[in-house]
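cron nightly-structures :: item 1 of 1
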Amino acid sequence: MHLGGIAVSLIVTLLGLIAITFFIGRVVPIDPALAVVGDRAPKAVYEAARVQLGLDKPLIVQFVTYVKAVATGDLGMSVSTGRPVLQDLKEVFPATLEMATLGILIGIALGVPMGVHAAAKQGSLTDQVIRVVGLAGYAIPAFWLGLVGLAVFYARLQWVDGPGRVDIAYDGLVTPVTGLMLVDSLLAGETDIFFNAIGHLALPACILGFFSLAYIARMTRSFMLDQLAQEYITTARVKGLPERVVIWRHAFRPILLPLITVCALSYAALLEGSVMIETIFSWPGIGNYLTVALLNADMAAVLGATLLIGTVFIIINKVSDALYDVLDPRAR
C-alpha cells in the first residue's frame, strides 16, 4: 500500500474510532452534565449545564460538533482536574510511553532469543522452561505480580525504588521538555535525578517486559518451528552448514515480518493495558489518569484518554504495515 493509501486508511479508521468513542460516551449510564454540577444542583443549573455542553441538541449535531472539536484538539474540560483534557494527556502520556517503551525493549531483547532457542532445542528441558515462562505471562495477574515485586524487590531487598517516577525530594526539579523523565533529566544535566528515575522505573518496566517477552517468546517459537520444518532447512543442514548459521541466517530471517506485527501488537498492548501497573506503582501515566476519571465519572477525560489510546494503537499498526512494504517488496 502506498503512503497515500495508508494516509486515507488512517483517516477513515480514526473517524471510525471517533464515532465509536462518541456514541459509547452517550450510551453509558453517566450524565456528563450531572458530573459537572453534582447530584444536588438545582434543576435550572442542571439544565443550563446541559445547554452549555450541547446535550440538548440532536445526537447527530452533537457528533458533528464533537468531530470538529477533536479536529482542532479540543477534547473538553476535565471535571477531575479542571483543566483541558488535551493538556492533561500531554502531561500523563509521556510517563506511560516511557515505561511501555522500556518494557517492550526488554520483551524483544529477551523474548526473541528465548523463542529461537526454544524452537532450536524443541522438547529439551530449556524448551519446557521457556514454555512455562510463556504460559506464566498469560496466567499471572498483573496486580499480583506488581504487589509481589514491590514486597520483594523494594520493601525486602531494597534493590529498586518505590512507587512514583522520582523521590519526593526530586519532584518538580526538572523542567519538562519531552515529558520523558530519563531524557529531560539528562538534558538538564541532573544525573542524580536520572539514576533515581531509573530506580523507580526499573521494576514496573521489568514487569511489563515480562508480560511482553512471554507473548513474543511464544510467537517466535511458533514461527521458528514452522521454518525449521521446511525442506530448505534440511538442505542447509545436509550441506554441512553450522547450526548457528542455519538457525539465525536461514530460519530466522523469514520470520522477521510476522515478528514485526507481534512486537507492534505487544507494544500497543503495553501502552493501553498498563492500568493495573500504573495504579499499583502510583505511576502518573494515562492508565492512572483513566482510572481516576472513571471513578469521578469524568466522561470528557475518559473519552479523551480512550481516543488517544485508540489513535496510538492505529498508528502503530499502520507503521507496521508500512514496514512490511519496506522490508518485503512482494507486499507492495
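cron nightly-structures :: done
The chain has a mean pLDDT of 85.
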